[in-house]
Write a structure and sequence with these properties.
Elements lengths: L2 H4 E7 L6 E9 L2 E5 L7 H10 L7 E5 L5 H4 L2 H8 L2 E5 L3 H6 L11 H10 L12 E3 L12 E5 L8 E5 L4 E4 L2 E2 L5 E2 L6 H12 L5 E4 L5 E2 H5 L3
Parallel strand pairs: 3-4, 4-5, 5-6, 9-12
Antiparallel strand pairs: 1-2, 2-3, 7-8, 8-9, 10-11, 12-13
């Protein structure tokens, strides 16, 4: 299947004019799959976009989370209730969404950022959730109807993952971005782990990269620059 036909990007604004975040709706014979959900400030827009793209309540088969940050998980609890979707993510980030603490498993946090974040990006009880199941490195999503596998990509967070499709295209979460140029995301909790993740990606044939922030890009373009 042509990637352009079944991958439908949804770009949502972040709070306080902090940029945008990407969600990706994938349409398969088994139903619809959503990679990340944006932040809760754009819930109405997300719902409108899902329905405009053909995904109505009851048709969203699975939500796959690349990591636990508020701007990727903010609409999960709502979508679970309204669309009946199941949710999966890596176990190492589960505590972030269950407690509403985006620093739950992070070790290098600026104390001022830690103090201000709950005030600016509060993840109250209504937005918290427990994933239906956890995914880990090497897992196939074929049993759920999506021909893709999970790649562990720690660095931005301990439980960050990528989703690699049958066509060798990668949804990379926040390991890489392309806001101005393809590159490593500037916000990293563990830079050594991030570099190891990049080294691993060099060994995997990858065509297009669908980042959490910015435009889609060719993996070869990124590798030429690093």
């Amino acid at each position: 299947m042509d990637m352009k036909n079944y991958i439908k990007p949804i770009r949502l604004a972040l709070p306080y004019r902090l940029g945008t975040v990407n969600c990706y709706l994938l349409e398969e014979e088994a139903g619809y799959f959503l990679i990340d959900t944006g932040s809760s400030n754009m819930r109405r827009k997300l719902k409108q976009e899902l329905e405009r793209l053909g995904c109505k309540p009851g048709q969203l088969k699975l939500i796959i989370l690349t990591h636990g940050d508020f701007d990727h998980t903010g609409n999960v609890a709502y979508l679970k209730e309204k669309f009946g979707a199941r949710v999966c993510m890596h176990a190492d980030d589960c505590g972030m969404v269950e407690t509403g603490n985006m620093f739950w498993n992070r070790k290098n946090v600026n104390p001022i950022v830690r103090m201000l974040s709950p005030l600016l990006f509060g993840f109250g009880r209504s937005k918290r959730f427990t994933p239906d199941f956890c995914i880990q490195d090497g897992d196939s999503l074929m049993e759920y109807g999506l021909d893709a596998r999970v790649i562990s990509l720690p660095g931005h967070s301990k439980g960050s993952v990528g989703i690699l499709t049958e066509n060798s295209d990668l949804f990379c979460g926040d390991l890489l971005d392309n806001v101005k140029l393809p590159g490593i995301n500037q916000i990293m909790d563990d830079r050594e782990a991030a570099q190891e993740s990049i080294t691993r990606l060099r060994t995997i044939p990858i065509n297009l990269v669908y980042p959490g922030h910015g435009e889609t890009f060719l993996m070869s373009t990124f590798l030429e620059k690093v």
